[in-house]
Structures are given as structure tokens and as C-alpha cells.
Amino acid sequence: MSLQARIDEALFHRLLSGARIPLIGSAFGGLLIALSQWGSEKGHLFLLWCSVVYAVIVLRVWLLKRCQHRLAKHGFNYPLAYRYCLTLALSGLAWGALGLLVKDAPPMTVIIVITAIQAMVMGGVVTMASCIPAFFAFSLPAMLPTVLVFSFSENLSSLIMAVFSVIFYLLMIGIAYRFNQSLRQATRISFENEDLIGSLKDAYHKISAQNQELNHVAHHDVLTGLPNRKLLSLRLQQAIELGRVKRTGTALLYLDLDGFKAVNDQLGHEAGDLALIEVAQRLSKVIRGSDTLARVGGDEFVIVLSDLPEQGKSSVEMVGQKCLMVFERDFQIQGAACRLGTSIGLTMCKDGEAIEQLLSAADKAMYQAKLLGCGQMSWAV
Question: What is the C-alpha separation between 265 and 269, in angstroms, rounded?
């Protein structure tokens, strides 16, 4: 929906929401005028006029509810707005008929009628200026009969009254237009601010998502989604610091796959990638959520075990055995059964050692395990 249509819809909603005020004013105004003419020569005519006003009010209430129902069900459209303006014309015609009763009426009656009609028109400026066609639909038939009655009178005072009525109506038109423009400008600014805020929110969410993606790429292996060497160093440092505070141990398991080169050579690099993904998934199931599994090379993985008891070598070896066990089942890669194994280097992290020294010690222990044969573990010395 265009911005102009959104503004028109908002102003039409404003028109409907303020419809009860002129209806209440019309009910009270009509009753007071009828009572003021009670017992006068044209009292019965004013009473009949008041009945017409109330009949129009009832009809307008029904039409208002029908219009609100259509608006809620089908949404805003200009024909609906124009049809609602026609309902306002009914009220304008009813009040315009009041002007026909002032012909040859006493001066006080003339003053009451003129004041009432002008008050209703002034009220229309406030409640109907959000929709200029609605304002004209009501005010023009309300004012025109009175002006015509005074214009065709041979009485000079009546002619002067007609001129003043025209001037008053022109002033009301000008005020209604100014009020309408102010409402439109305020509504336009509101929608533009909403659109701007919405655009800024969308841009912020996109930038945040891109930053998260970049941060994930910077700290995770693209193939397996595991932490890379950079994030592994951060996690290892945090585990060591936590162990220092809680007086617990931290251990490293350095794993290198056995038989991976054969999979790559025989089935291709795509099969090798699938094998690495499967290895990562299997190893993730044997560690705790507080531990870290990272991929640090082509077929090399590192596990950080944190919050271990001070004499935690048995716990580390138990995790190592679980890692060896995950390779007992064949890997189904592209429909072919593949055998893979691993050699594991183990080391307990000592306080004060650099991260690279710890990784190097575990790496050397892993090579010692390879010398012992496939599927072996070795502690760093």
C-alpha cells in the first residue's frame, strides 16, 4: 500500500472513531431546540423536525456499525469512504431542514437556529476535518438552506445575516483544510518514522546476523562446524583459569586419524570430507557439554577436558578409550564401508605453560602413540 493510501486509511479510521461525538451532539442539540420552541406557533414543526433528527441518528448508528464491520473484514477502500460520507449527508440535510423553519420566525428563534447550525458545523471541523469530503457532505446541506432563506428575504438584516453566514462558512472551510493538512502532515511523519525505524531495525538485524556469521566463520571449522584452532586456544585458556580457581585439572587429547589418506585416495576428497563430518559427530557424543572438541588440521582433532579431579589421569584415559571405541564401527561413505582408526596423545595441562606448548606436547605424544600401532594412546612426558 502506498504512503498516500496509508495516510487516507489512518484518517478514515480517525473519522470513524470520532463519529460518536457529533451523534451525541446532534441528539442533545435537537432535543434542546425542540424544547425551546415548545408551545410556540411552529412548535409542532420543531417537534417533527426533532423526530427526523433522531431517526437519522438511529440510521447513522446502524450505517456506522456496518461500515466498521466492512472495514474490519475487507480493509480500507475509497468507495467505502465515499459511501460513509453519504451517511453524513443525511445528518446535514436534517439540520439544513431546520433552516427552513426560521422563515418568518421570531428573532430569538432565528438566533437559536443559526447558533445551533453553526455550532454543528464548527463541531464538524473538529470531528470530520480528517476527511474533507465528509466535512462537505455534512456542512454544505446544513448551511445552504439557511443562507438561501436569508438571501431571498427582503429584510436588510436577513441579507446581512446571509452574508455573515457565508463568511462564517468560508472561514470554517479554511480551518477544516488547515486542520486536514496538519493531520496529514502529522500522519505522514508518523508513518515515515515507522518506516525509517523498521528499515533501521532490519538493517541492524542483517548486520547482527552477518557479524554472527563472520564471528562463527572466524572461530569454527567450515566443514565440521567444530571450533577451530583459534577458538580452541580461547577455550583451553578458560579451562585452565577455571581449574586454577576451583583447584581442578585440565587435560588435552590430541587425535590423528589412521587410514584417512586411503579414503581420500580411493574415494576422493568429497568422501574424505564426509568421513571427517561423521568422525566429528561420533566424537561429539563421547564428551560432556562443558568439554571442547575442535578440528585443528586436515584429519587432526583436539579434545579439552576441564574440571577434572586433581588425579584425573584415569578419567582422561576413560574418555580416550571411548574415542577409540567410536572407530570400531565401519564408516558408510557413499555406499562403501570404510575402516578408520585414531591415535591419541594425552597430556595434563600444567599451570603456567603456554597454550602452544601444551598443544605441542600432546601432538608429540600422539606421534608416540602412532609408533605403537593403530588405535593406541600415549601420555606426554
Answer: 8
